[in-house]
Amino acid sequence: MIRLSGKVRRADRPNLNRVQVKEKARVAHKEYNQGMRLRVLLRERDVCDVVTTLCEIRPGVSEVGSHLATHEVKTSANKRTPKWSTEDNFVPSRVRFRLPEEVISNALNFLKTEIRDGDTEIELGSDREQTDDTNASVMTFERLTQSTREQLEAMQWLWNLQLACREAVLCCTWLTRSVKEVEDDTSPAHVAFLQILECWPYAALKGFGFDLSYAAIFCLRDSEWLNDAVMRAVAVSLSRFKNNQTVMLPPPTSDGQRGDILQEKAIRSIARAVASRPFVLMPVNLGGVRWAGLP
Fold first, then answer.
1. What's the domain of life for this entry (predicted)?
2. What does each C-alpha distance from 251 to 180, 263, 292 come to in angstroms?
3. Which residue has the higher pLDDT, 176 or 245?
4. Please, what is the angle between helix 47-57 and helix 149-174, to 10°?
5. What pLDDT sits at residue 121?
6. Residue 23, class by beta-carbon neighbours within 10 Å (0-12 exposed, 13-18 middle, 19+ buried)?
């Protein structure tokens, strides 16, 4: 028996900010209503059918972004280890949700590298034979789902589409907060704002000549444009060959006549890398927060 003394103080419930709660509920309800039309159309559909339908009807950023924001994601997959198997006659069930993006990315990379190269053993199907065709591969999460490679790629495509919509909304935020403050006539900014929200993320904007999926493009210097997505793709492609050579560059030494210069040892390392590889990927850090590369 535990005795409680009379000095125990009762903890009061924290004050509830009702104004903040109402505003949060209003924003969530508005976002839910914006994606209602797509939600009715895509209800009970497999993720592959969802991708096909979205590519056909090409809804705008605000509508498809609101739909994807409320699309179900099975976060319990983070705590489970997937198992790959080969099933030639496997009939996939209808998958109406997404797995976390990191889980999908790791699974697809594992399938394209270790399994395809033959370095990893996987469970075989009924014919007990392993084939080189990754289309017959099935990923199983115990008591959660069995998904084919095509379904996983559809989930990844939806994650990329949601990222493009998020980048588009950030562009709209920049227009309303930064451009309107310095422009006397706000009508051009308002027109661009509406065009972005009503445009399909992978369609070229009228008057701009580029699509919203390239929102990560930035300019390092004149005629030198970099893109995070492209650099990540190059890194993934290079990792397959496993013959990369990394050169660590120490801080340059100061010279009174020539200014800051690299050490002779570092210059020789760069020269050897250029001679042994068809190209060199030079990392560049911008502002201490963004990394890019110059091929």
1. Eukaryota
2. 42, 9, 19
3. 176
4. 40
5. 47
6. exposed
Separation CA 249–CA 268 (nearest Å): 11
Give the CA-trace dihedral at 207, 220, 172, 211, to 10 degrees.
40
Q: CA 162, CA 65: separation in Å to the nearest integer?
A: 6
Residue-range domain boundaries for the chain = 23-215, 223-295
Q: For residue 266, with 0-12 CB atoms within 10 Å meaning exposed, 13-18 middle and 19 or more buried, which class applies?
A: middle
Three-state DSSP at 166 gives helix
Distances in Å between the Cα of 277 and the Cα atoms of 247, 250, 271, 273 are 13, 22, 10, 6
Indicate if the pLDDT at residue 124 is higher than 60.
no
Average pLDDT over residues 62-77: 89
159: its two tokens: 């994650």
pLDDT band at 105 (very low <50, low <70, confident <90, very high): confident
Q: Quick check: helix, strand or coil at residue 278? A: coil
Structure tokens at 231: 């650099």
Question: The whole model's pTM is what?
Answer: 0.62
| Alpha carbons 170 and 180: distance in angstroms, whole number | 15
In angstroms, the CA 204 to CA 79 distance is 40
Query: How is 206-242 classified by DSSP, letter by letter?
Result: TTT-SBGGGTT-EEEETTEEE-HHHHHHHHHHHHTT-
Q: Which amino acid is at 273?
A: A
Place of tokens 């949700």: 97
Q: Running DSSP on this structure, what letter comes out for residue 47? A: H
106 in helix, strand or coil?
Answer: helix
Closest CA to 111 of 81, 84, 151: 84
In sequence order, what are the residues at sequence separation of 6 or more whose Cβ sits closer than 8 angstroms to the Cβ of residue 135?
A: 148, 149, 150
- From CA 269, how far away is CA 107, in angstroms rounded? 36
Q: Which helix (H) or strand (E) holds 141?
A: strand 137-141
